[in-house]
Amino acid sequence: MSARVLIVEDEDAIATGLKFNIEAEGYEAVVLGDGPSTLEYFDKHPEEVDMVILDLMLPGMSGYEICRSIRTVDQQVSILVLSARTLSEDKTHAFDCGIDQYMTKPFALPELLSRVRSLLKRSSTKSLPADEPDTFEFGNVEVDFRKYELTRGEETFQLTKMEVQLLRYFIANAGDVLSRTQILRDVWEQSADVTSRTIDNFVMRLRKYIEEDPGKPEHLLSVRGTGYRFVPE
Q1: Which residue from 34, 79, 105, 116 has the fewest beta carbons nearer than 10 Å?
Q2: What is the pLDDT of residue 188?
């Protein structure tokens, strides 16, 4: 069964072009033009959507709201934003809502299709690889990668897909000094729409979950002029 891509776009010309090219890649494409229709589709077809291509400026309900609503029911579906909004604040807000990739309009079709293939390949399985643990514990923190949950003491936090991927990357490279360039390459695959500021914002969010005092981190440490180092104990 081919992967199903949901295209949420209210401009007919763009939606039609995307549908044609996504289907030419061998995937199934479904076009919807607004937020309520999108959320209704998710409700009627649970776990049948593999990827969402999402515009931010939609009638009645913004792409940000749609993304947050999707993440309450599905933490793993890949979401790629395709928007005319180019400000860094817009990109940061979108990543905060739980997206995986951000592209600005106008866009290059080969790059878009490359990202679609990459995201679908990454999410082609709903389960964790056999050699990766379901959970990880350090200090008074426990991470459940299947549930996208992090528990510190008595508090439990819901993580986004990108937060999980970044935290898993830090854990896999515990003790190593990781430059922002490395993180950008290995976690975001060198996306042009992700900057060092985006990475710093993600790290600050992870610190709020992990650290007793985010202002004085003990696990997720800054390395001046370079990047970050994760210290489990």
Answers
A1: 105
A2: 80
Q: How distant, in Å, are the alpha carbons of 5, 127, 158, 175, 199 from that of 215?
A: 41, 35, 21, 20, 17
Q: How confident is the model at residue 132 (pLDDT cuts 50, 70, 90)?
A: low
Q: Spelled out in words, what is the top-level CATH class assigned to the domain 4-122?
A: alpha beta
Cα dist from 156 to 7, 32, 164, whole Å: 33, 34, 14
Least confident interval from 40-44, 127-131, 189-193, 200-204: 127-131
pTM, two decimals, is 0.77
H-assigned helices in 25-127: 35-44, 63-73, 88-97, 109-122
Question: Strand, coil or helix: what is 206?
Answer: helix
Pick the CATH number of 135-230 from 1.10.10.10, 3.40.50.720, 3.40.140.80, 1.10.1040.10: 1.10.10.10
Cα–Cα distance for residue pair 115/117, rounded to 1 Å:
5
Q: Scan for tokens 């049948």, then name that residue.
A: 48
Question: Which residue, 71, 73, 74, 92, is CA-closest to 83?
Answer: 92
* Distance (Å, whole) CA 82 – CA 79: 10
Contact present, 121 and 115 (Cβ < 8 Å)? no
